[in-house]
Amino acid sequence: MEIPVALARPGTCQILRLDYGYSPGSTPGWEGADLAWTPLEVSTQAGAPSRGLLLRNAEMLLGWARTRGGHGLWKELARIASSRGLCLVCRFPRRAEELIGHLRRAGPRPAFWENPADGRIPPLYEALSDKPGLVRFHLEYEWLTGLGAARGGAALLATAFALAGPTPQPAAAVGASLGITTGAARSYLSWMEDAALVRREGRTYALRHPLLAGLFAQDEVPTPRPTRTTFKNSPRSAAPSRSTLAPPSPPLPKPAGSPSEPASESAPPPHLPPRRPDPMDFD
Known about the structure:
Helices cover 32% and strands 12% of the residues. The chain is an alpha/beta fold. It folds into 2 domains: 102 residues, Rossmann fold; 97 residues, Arc Repressor Mutant, subunit A. Strands 2-3-4-1-5 form a 5-stranded parallel sheet, covered by helices on one side. Helix 1 links the parallel strand 2 and strand 3. The longest helix is centred in the middle third of the chain and has 17 residues. The C terminus is likely disordered.
């Protein structure tokens, strides 16, 4: 999918909302900085003044604007858009709406584009199709970072399991699966949609793409391998054999003074550390 990045020129102001796994790719004429790993003052001054400024993870601007150092941030971004050109790349739909509102109040009216939520697999996962370990890592990162940006907490995890089937579900079916009202289920789904974890298909809902749904499919949950303390529950092996158990612990030392082993007055009991010499004992 080609992402339409605007031309880098003075007066350009654009917001790109891209799901996890999408990237603007080559951006000639733009000087990029990542707000997740670069201080704000460094990011806003990156590159030559003749090049446009492209800021990734632009959701971070909303947090910076609430700090003491972020006073006047939106006016500064409006100035950059007027003099150099500005492109903000963010992930979450709700945050994109907030960015648009702040920039409009500061002056520029940003152009907006987002990748369609049509269930296609993001390009990152297609590029890693021969590396299942990395695919799993990115899927978990996509889910956890989206969960951190959403309201709902554990309720959204339960909703994800309800949506993990092969077909999209209406809000009423999700509510019935969770034992809650349709209105409450619709709220959970809306929060997940704001965090780019759920897509809407008419009046039904599904997880953002099939690979993300695979995290919660019951038949995809890995089963731990049997260990020395994990036993298969079958009629022929109802109880573990002695050979599968851990070796017995060594017997505890007998306390000093027991009938079978006379105590020694000079040696401390075996379960206590030796007594330190007294610095005042000169004998």
